[in-house]
Protein backbone atom coordinates (compact mmCIF):
# COMPACT_ATOMS: atom_id res chain seq x y z
CA UNK A 1 0.00 0.00 0.00
CA UNK A 2 1.53 3.25 -1.15
CA UNK A 3 0.84 6.47 0.71
CA UNK A 4 -0.20 9.41 -1.39
CA UNK A 5 1.17 12.90 -1.04
CA UNK A 6 -2.13 14.03 0.44
CA UNK A 7 -2.00 11.30 3.12
CA UNK A 8 1.56 12.27 3.98
CA UNK A 9 0.63 15.94 4.33
CA UNK A 10 -2.40 15.11 6.48
CA UNK A 11 -0.27 12.94 8.77
CA UNK A 12 2.29 15.75 9.07
CA UNK A 13 -0.42 18.27 9.91
CA UNK A 14 -1.93 15.98 12.56
CA UNK A 15 1.52 15.40 14.11
CA UNK A 16 2.22 19.15 14.19
CA UNK A 17 -1.13 19.81 15.84
CA UNK A 18 -0.46 17.07 18.40
CA UNK A 19 2.91 18.60 19.30
CA UNK A 20 1.40 22.08 19.52
CA UNK A 21 -1.39 20.77 21.76
CA UNK A 22 1.15 18.97 23.95
CA UNK A 23 3.19 22.15 24.30
CA UNK A 24 0.06 24.11 25.15
CA UNK A 25 -0.98 21.56 27.77
CA UNK A 26 2.51 21.63 29.29
CA UNK A 27 2.50 25.43 29.50
CA UNK A 28 -1.02 25.41 30.97
CA UNK A 29 -0.24 22.78 33.64
CA UNK A 30 3.18 24.08 34.68
CA UNK A 31 3.78 27.44 36.30
CA UNK A 32 5.69 30.04 34.32
CA UNK A 33 9.44 29.62 34.29
CA UNK A 34 11.08 31.28 37.25
CA UNK A 35 13.90 33.72 36.77
CA UNK A 36 16.32 31.00 37.90
CA UNK A 37 16.54 27.39 36.79
CA UNK A 38 14.42 24.93 38.76
CA UNK A 39 15.17 21.20 38.59
CA UNK A 40 12.11 19.34 39.79
CA UNK A 41 9.75 16.48 39.01
CA UNK A 42 10.23 14.77 35.68
CA UNK A 43 13.16 17.04 34.79
CA UNK A 44 15.05 15.73 37.84
CA UNK A 45 14.11 12.17 36.83
CA UNK A 46 15.48 12.87 33.33
CA UNK A 47 18.78 14.07 34.76
CA UNK A 48 18.92 11.03 37.09
CA UNK A 49 18.62 8.85 33.97
CA UNK A 50 21.10 10.87 31.89
CA UNK A 51 23.88 11.05 34.52
CA UNK A 52 24.58 7.27 34.61
CA UNK A 53 24.55 7.09 30.80
CA UNK A 54 27.15 9.85 30.44
CA UNK A 55 29.23 8.74 33.44
CA UNK A 56 29.11 5.05 32.51
CA UNK A 57 32.20 3.41 33.93
CA UNK A 58 33.00 6.26 36.33
CA UNK A 59 30.19 5.52 38.80
CA UNK A 60 30.20 2.77 41.42
CA UNK A 61 28.75 -0.46 40.04
CA UNK A 62 25.61 -0.80 42.16
CA UNK A 63 23.90 -0.27 45.47
CA UNK A 64 23.74 2.73 47.77
CA UNK A 65 27.14 4.04 46.65
CA UNK A 66 25.90 4.29 43.04
CA UNK A 67 22.65 5.99 44.08
CA UNK A 68 24.58 8.45 46.25
CA UNK A 69 27.02 9.22 43.42
CA UNK A 70 24.15 9.85 40.98
CA UNK A 71 22.36 12.09 43.48
CA UNK A 72 25.56 14.04 44.17
CA UNK A 73 26.29 14.43 40.44
CA UNK A 74 22.72 15.63 39.85
CA UNK A 75 23.07 18.20 42.62
CA UNK A 76 26.38 19.44 41.16
CA UNK A 77 24.83 19.73 37.68
CA UNK A 78 22.00 21.76 39.20
CA UNK A 79 24.54 24.04 40.90
CA UNK A 80 26.49 24.38 37.64
CA UNK A 81 23.32 25.42 35.81
CA UNK A 82 22.57 28.01 38.50
CA UNK A 83 25.99 29.53 37.80
CA UNK A 84 25.11 30.16 34.15
CA UNK A 85 23.70 33.46 32.85
CA UNK A 86 19.91 33.72 33.20
CA UNK A 87 19.35 33.54 29.43
CA UNK A 88 21.30 30.27 29.30
CA UNK A 89 19.41 28.95 32.35
CA UNK A 90 16.18 29.62 30.44
CA UNK A 91 17.45 27.60 27.46
CA UNK A 92 18.45 24.71 29.73
CA UNK A 93 15.03 24.97 31.45
CA UNK A 94 13.36 24.70 28.03
CA UNK A 95 15.45 21.62 27.21
CA UNK A 96 14.46 19.91 30.45
CA UNK A 97 10.85 20.99 29.88
CA UNK A 98 10.87 19.12 26.57
CA UNK A 99 12.49 16.09 28.16
CA UNK A 100 9.85 16.14 30.92
CA UNK A 101 6.88 16.33 28.53
CA UNK A 102 5.86 12.75 27.66
CA UNK A 103 5.01 13.26 23.94
CA UNK A 104 8.18 15.26 23.32
CA UNK A 105 10.27 12.75 25.31
CA UNK A 106 8.85 9.90 23.24
CA UNK A 107 9.36 11.71 19.94
CA UNK A 108 12.83 13.13 20.63
CA UNK A 109 14.39 10.33 22.67
CA UNK A 110 12.35 7.20 22.06
CA UNK A 111 11.94 6.71 25.83
CA UNK A 112 8.33 5.58 26.19
CA UNK A 113 7.83 4.56 29.82
CA UNK A 114 9.11 7.62 31.65
CA UNK A 115 12.57 8.50 32.89
CA UNK A 116 12.28 6.47 36.09
CA UNK A 117 11.89 3.29 33.99
CA UNK A 118 14.53 4.14 31.37
CA UNK A 119 17.49 1.78 31.10
CA UNK A 120 21.03 3.09 30.75
CA UNK A 121 21.26 1.46 27.32
CA UNK A 122 18.16 3.33 26.08
CA UNK A 123 19.44 6.65 27.39
CA UNK A 124 22.91 6.04 25.93
CA UNK A 125 21.32 5.24 22.56
CA UNK A 126 19.31 8.46 22.44
CA UNK A 127 22.35 10.49 23.56
CA UNK A 128 24.44 8.91 20.81
CA UNK A 129 21.68 9.71 18.29
CA UNK A 130 21.65 13.34 19.44
CA UNK A 131 25.45 13.53 19.33
CA UNK A 132 25.54 12.78 15.59
CA UNK A 133 22.08 14.04 14.61
CA UNK A 134 21.70 16.01 11.38
CA UNK A 135 19.89 18.81 13.27
CA UNK A 136 22.33 21.16 14.95
CA UNK A 137 19.82 21.91 17.71
CA UNK A 138 19.90 18.30 18.95
CA UNK A 139 23.69 18.19 18.67
CA UNK A 140 23.83 21.37 20.77
CA UNK A 141 21.44 19.86 23.33
CA UNK A 142 23.64 16.78 23.56
CA UNK A 143 26.73 18.98 24.01
CA UNK A 144 25.03 20.94 26.78
CA UNK A 145 23.96 17.80 28.66
CA UNK A 146 27.37 16.20 28.19
CA UNK A 147 29.33 19.26 29.34
CA UNK A 148 27.06 19.95 32.31
CA UNK A 149 27.24 16.36 33.59
CA UNK A 150 30.99 16.00 33.10
CA UNK A 151 31.65 19.48 34.47
CA UNK A 152 29.59 18.71 37.55
CA UNK A 153 31.29 15.34 38.01
CA UNK A 154 34.87 16.57 37.69
CA UNK A 155 34.22 19.67 39.79
CA UNK A 156 34.22 17.31 42.76
CA UNK A 157 37.78 16.65 44.02
CA UNK A 158 36.85 13.05 44.90
CA UNK A 159 36.62 12.22 41.17
CA UNK A 160 40.09 13.53 40.31
CA UNK A 161 42.03 10.48 41.49
CA UNK A 162 40.35 8.22 38.91
CA UNK A 163 41.80 10.32 36.07
CA UNK A 164 45.16 10.97 37.70
CA UNK A 165 44.59 14.69 38.23
CA UNK A 166 46.51 15.82 41.32
CA UNK A 167 44.46 18.99 41.76
CA UNK A 168 45.25 22.62 41.06
CA UNK A 169 48.82 23.77 41.38
CA UNK A 170 49.18 25.10 44.92
CA UNK A 171 51.39 28.00 43.81
CA UNK A 172 48.74 29.18 41.35
CA UNK A 173 45.84 28.66 43.77
CA UNK A 174 47.30 30.95 46.44
Automatic annotation (TrEMBL):
Taxonomy, superkingdom: Bacteria
| Species this chain originates from | Massilia terrae
Q: Which NCBIfam families match?
A: TAT_signal_seq (TIGR01409)
In its UniProt entry, what is this protein called?
Answer: Twin-arginine translocation signal domain-containing protein
Amino acid sequence: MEASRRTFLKAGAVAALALAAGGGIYRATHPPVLARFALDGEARAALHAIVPAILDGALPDAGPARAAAIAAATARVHQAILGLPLATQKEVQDLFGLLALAPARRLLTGIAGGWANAHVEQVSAFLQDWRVHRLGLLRSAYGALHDLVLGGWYADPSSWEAIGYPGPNRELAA
